[in-house]
Specification:
10-stranded antiparallel sheet, 9-stranded mixed sheet, 33 strands, 44% helix, elongated, magnesium, Phospholipid-transporting ATPase, EC 7.6.2.1, ATPase-coupled intramembrane lipid transporter activity
Length: 1033
């Protein structure tokens, strides 16, 4: 067939005009007819790789990563010193624990990576159908090449980025959900490329398109591009040609590897480690110095019974000093506990299962419990100072219900009325010169201005009228179409269509670009859908252009009041503004509805402009918005709607508990200020007595001065109120709440360099003195900016972000702890979070219960580890004073190696997993207990000093106690005196029993596991000593 040239399908705004360089040419079904030799362009294959390691590079790469940790590297150095230098203890003593640590961590990381490989393989080996030479061939997803024609069936996921060529639907469209890409569970409509060959077997074409780009939101524009990861819905089968494959698909380019989050506890451990390193070096220095002082006395260096060899006499004195220093370092190196890192890793890994297993987190509705994606942050949950929460879907259910509407200034509330079929009742006092035509126009607008689809009942034909027979008496008024579900881009849209249905106007669905609605007199009206001007967050409105039977072109528009009011006649606004503002203060979401009749000339011009803008290669987005704005002007306002979004269950109790625990809650939302404010009141974040400080576009507009000056004055005024006038020593008598919107926030952040940091500081200080901060009209990036600002403020407070939609991902990744809610808005937030919970109410137990206990457990674990190693090594140091600083070990090599691995490791691990110093119910009832561990209270220097002094005291006691015992010489049965090993073993036995009993005394919550490991460890030590002693002697 003749080679058809597909028009350039996808384009983005390029910096320069050289579109040729930034495009790729794809040949479908033929080669270019040129005389010179054809070199096919190289494109990557369709394999997806999200794993870190392969079988070949696992060992080197993993070892490199592990030895970047300061403790592991230190032990490697000590091990090498033991191998090279003649040291008092065998290399096994430090080699074995290090090998154990490295192996355990490598197994854990290898297992996690194996899971990633498994997930990749599922995607790569997925069976797909490819059309080749007129035949349908089955193959694997990874074998798809650019230019292949791929067939996809309903409910299947697209294996790569495709351009839609053919669809089984009559109107050449297909419906797609992109929940896994941008979190929206809506159905988007895509169109086939116009004027292409219907017979795909003989299709040969050349496609010009952009090089791959990661920008998701721009790319969802092209109507013929189907993205990998999206799912085909409501369409039996489509065929498309692969344009981007594998790691060049939008989905792969958007995959953001999570940065490693480190907990505050780990930072404390590193600080304590440095202290112990100093202790270690100073001990080794003291011993080396004293050794040479002692040897300088006559007769001490070379006694008659221990003559030096020739080689020993010839060695350099400084080299000898250095090797002695290293030997002492090796002898005392057990003061730095390598096994602590293993125990901490195991405690975090095993501890995270308790969150997964918690029955209170199980939600019967979605039949899932909590999910832990990052186990490294468990104890961080007990340290949270700031919670940043999204509003829609997190504090509220994202479950919309149509409440009331207002037409031409008259208010209508839905009333359960079986007698009146229209169920429409007016609450205003006087009917006034009111005509039913406005009412019907308004309801038609609700029925037509949306992107809702009617879910086709399975096994039914295209004709929807037959499903009208079964009537489901819903709330008194029969909405005839309730059996057939609606599918829409947002719950708002479905609520409005269902609202119109209650008042007698039913949307019957769309067939080949014709929208059908049934009016009050049960007649079916048909409209041709000419254009949809899609909703976007900047315009904050959407419109449709339809043609009625009589041939009139009508534009219906709905959107937020701030974006509709400036585009309609001002005299109409006042009547409706009152209702909109009242509805907003009651916590309802409001939308205004407007319309405009287009003359044939106006429509022809708009149609031409829209077509031109949609095909523009450069700056397409800007051109489209310019055309949209031009068309949506001079409209007539018809009315407004109010939709209620219910609060999540126990949202208020949860927020109250968090505030009681001393946590500051900030609400970051893209919603309107009034709606968000009423939600904050409903959640008890703002109390009746809270004084609200408002920094929004409304308070900045005073008509006289520039906004910047007004911003400065307001900041200073609020700063004086909330910060300066509050006495520092007393509890503030007045609670403050702070409200800011996105526009004012960008002024604070983006004002001129000199004033920006000044504004930021004022803003931050005001916020820190307020109980609750509400940020409305926020872009996703601004949410992350706010989190970053608080995170980097003085004192580096621990922050937590919680959200449920794709727009919350940036703040979830930015905060110290990110929590996703398994809500309605897709799973994007859950996938990027550290923890995922089914409902907001579970946050209370996660922080106040689990978080508190994890922190107490790990803090005790760290302090106890340093304590037991100090007790262990101090007698070894004191012993040097009694053996001529000869580096003689006090303990047997087996005991040295096994002390941390076998004899004392299990009891502390069990403690750190099972301890409940206060039971969970009490922790949840008394939120104030959370404050007692705030700001890393158990790992401050004071408790650390207490444990260190305790370790020194016990170490002195063990050594001098046993020495006192030996002060009275006794003989064995064979007349021998008790020797060096007996002395060391007695010290060691007292040591093991003391540190184990110390832990037993600290344990408040005993389970059979605690009993088993504590008494089991002691029994194991005794039995081992009998055998080991028998082998030696």
């Amino acid at each position: 067939s003749a080679c058809k040239h597909l028009r350039p399908l996808e384009s983005f705004s390029l910096e320069c005009d050289e579109s040729r360089v930034d495009s790729r040419t794809i040949y479908v079904g033929h080669r270019p007819s040129t005389t010179e030799a054809f070199i096919p362009p190289k494109f990557c294959d369709n394999r997806i790789v999200s794993s870190k390691y392969t079988v070949w590079n696992f060992l080197p790469k993993n070892l490199f990563e592990q030895f970047r940790r300061i403790a592991n590297f230190y032990f490697l150095i000590i091990f090498l010193v033991q191998v090279i230098v003649d040291t008092p203890t065998s290399p096994v003593t430090s080699g074995l624990p290090l090998f154990f640590v490295i192996t355990v961590t490598a197994i854990k990381q290898g297992y996690e990576d194996w899971l990633r490989h498994k997930a990749d393989n599922e995607v790569n080996k997925y069976p797909v159908t490819v059309l080749e030479n007129g035949r349908r061939m089955g193959t694997e997803s990874e074998k798809i090449k650019v230019g292949d024609v791929v067939e996809v069936n309903e409910d299947e996921t697209f294996p790569c980025d495709l351009i839609l060529l053919q669809s089984t639907r009559d109107d050449d469209t297909c419906f797609v959900t992109t929940a896994s890409l941008d979190g929206e569970s809506n159905h988007k409509t895509h169109y086939t490329v116009p004027d292409t060959e219907k017979d795909l077997d003989s299709l040969s074409a050349t496609i010009e398109c952009e090089q791959p780009q990661p920008d998701l939101y721009k790319s969802l524009g092209p109507e013929n591009l189907l993205l990998k990861g999206a799912t085909l819905k409501n369409t039996q089968r489509i065929c498309g040609v692969a344009v981007y494959t594998g790691m060049e698909t939008k989905m792969a380019l958007n995959y953001q590897g999570k940065s490693q989050k480190r907990s505050a506890v780990e930072k404390s451990i590193n600080a304590f480690l440095l202290v112990y390193l100093c202790i270690l070096v100073s001990k080794a220095l003291v011993c080396t110095t004293l050794k040479y002082v002692w040897q300088s006395k006559p007769g001490q260096d070379e006694p008659w019974y221990n003559q030096k060899t020739q080689r020993e006499k010839e060695t350099n004195l400084y080299l000898k000093m250095f090797t002695d220093f290293l030997s002492f370092m090796v002898l005392f190196n057990f003061i730095i506990p390598v096994s602590m890192y293993v125990t901490v890793e195991m405690q975090k890994f095993l501890g995270s299962f308790f969150i997964t297993w918690d029955r209170d987190f199980y939600d019967p509705e979605i039949q899932e419990g909590a999910l832990v994606n990052t186990s490294d942050l468990n104890e961080e949950l007990g340290q949270v100072e700031y919670v940043f929460t999204d509003k829609t879907g997190t504090l509220t259910q994202n479950n919309m219900e149509f409440i009331e509407c207002c037409i031409d200034g008259f208010q209508y509330k839905y009333r359960d009325a079986v007698s009146e079929l229209d169920g429409f009742s007016m609450i205003s006092d006087s009917k006034g010169p009111f005509n039913a035509r406005r009412e019907e126009l308004f309801l038609r607008a609700l029925c037509l201005c949306h992107t809702v689809q009617v879910k086709e009942p399975t096994g039914r034909g295209q004709d929807h009228t037959d499903s009208m027979a079964g009537v489901d008496g819903m709330e008194g008024c029969p909405p005839p179409h309730e059996q057939t579900g609606f599918i829409a881009s947002s719950p708002d849209e479905v609520a409005l269509v269902k609202g119109a249905m209650r008042y007698g106007f039913t949307f019957l669905g769309m067939e080949s670009k014709k929208m059908k609605i049934m009016n009050r007199s049960n007649a079916i009206e048909t409209y041709d859908l000419l254009h949809v001007l899609n909703f976007d967050p900047v315009r904050r409105r959407m419109s449709v252009i339809v043609r009625s039977k009589s041939g009139d072109a009508l534009l219906f528009c709905k959107g937020a009041d701030s974006s509709i009011f400036p585009r309609v006649r001002q005299e109409e606004v006042e009547k409706i503004r009152v209702h909109v503002e009242r509805n907003a203060t009651e916590g309802y979401r409001t939308l205004c509805v407007a319309y405009k009749k287009l003359s044939p000339e106006e429509y022809a011009r708009a149609d031409a402009d829209l077509q031109a803008a949609r095909l523009a290669l450069q700056d397409r987005e800007e051109k489209l918005i310019a055309v949209y704005n031009q068309v949506e002007a001079g409209m007539t306002l018809i009315g407004a709607t109010a939709v209620e979004d219910r609060l999540q269950e126990e949202a208020a109790e949860t927020m109250e508990a968090l505030q009681g625990a001393g946590i500051k809650v900030w609400v970051l939302t893209g919603d309107k200020m009034e709606t968000a404010k009423s939600t904050c009141y409903a959640c008890r974040l703002f109390q009746r007595g809270t004084e609200l400080l408002e920094l929004t576009v409304r308070t900045l507009e005073d008509g006289v001065r520039k906004r910047e000056e007004r911003l400065h004055d307001l900041l200073l005024e609020y700063h004086k109120k909330a910060v300066q006038d509050v006495p520092g020593w007393s509890k503030p008598s007045q609670d403050f709440g702070f409200i800011i919107d996105g526009a004012s926030l960008s002024m604070v952040f983006n004002s001129s360099e000199s004033s920006s940091s000044h504004y930021k500081n004022l803003f931050l200080q005001i916020c820190q003195n307020c109980t609750t901060v509400l940020c409305c009209r926020m872009a996703p990036l601004q949410k992350a900016q706010i989190v970053k600002m608080v995170k980097c403020s003085k004192g580096s407070p621990i922050t937590l972000s919680i959200g449920d939609g794709a727009n919350d991902v940036s703040m979830i990744l930015e905060a110290h702890v990110g929590i996703g809610i398994k809500g309605k808005e897709g799973r994007q937030a859950v996938r990027n979070s550290d923890y995922a919970i089914p409902k907001l109410k579970h946050l209370k137990k996660l922080l106040l219960g689990h978080g508190h206990l994890y922190y107490v457990r790990i803090a005790h674990l760290v302090q106890y580890f340093f304590y037991k190693n100090l007790c262990f090594i101090l007698p070894q140091f004191l012993y040097q004073f009694f053996c001529g600083y000869s580096q003689q070990p006090l303990y047997d090599a087996a005991y040295l190696t096994m002390y941390n691995i076998c004899f004392t490791s299990m009891p502390i691990l069990a403690y750190s997993l099972l301890e409940q110093h206060i039971c969970v119910e009490v922790l949840l009832d008394n939120a104030t207990l959370y404050r007692s561990i705030a700001k890393n209270a158990m790992l401050r220097w004071v408790p650390f000093l207490y444990w260190t002094l305790l370790g020194v005291f016990h170490g002195l006691l063990f050594f001098f106690g046993v020495r006192f015992l030996f002060g009275n010489p006794a003989l064995q049965a064979n007349g021998q005196v008790f020797g060096n090993w007996s002395y060391g073993t007695i010290v060691f036995t007292v040591l093991v029993f003391t540190v184990t009993f110390k832990l037993a005394l600290d344990t408040r919550h005993w389970t059979w596991i605690n009993h088993f490991v504590i008494w089991g460890s002691l029994c194991f030590y005794v039995i081992f000593s009998f055998f080991w002693g028998g082998i030696i002697w």
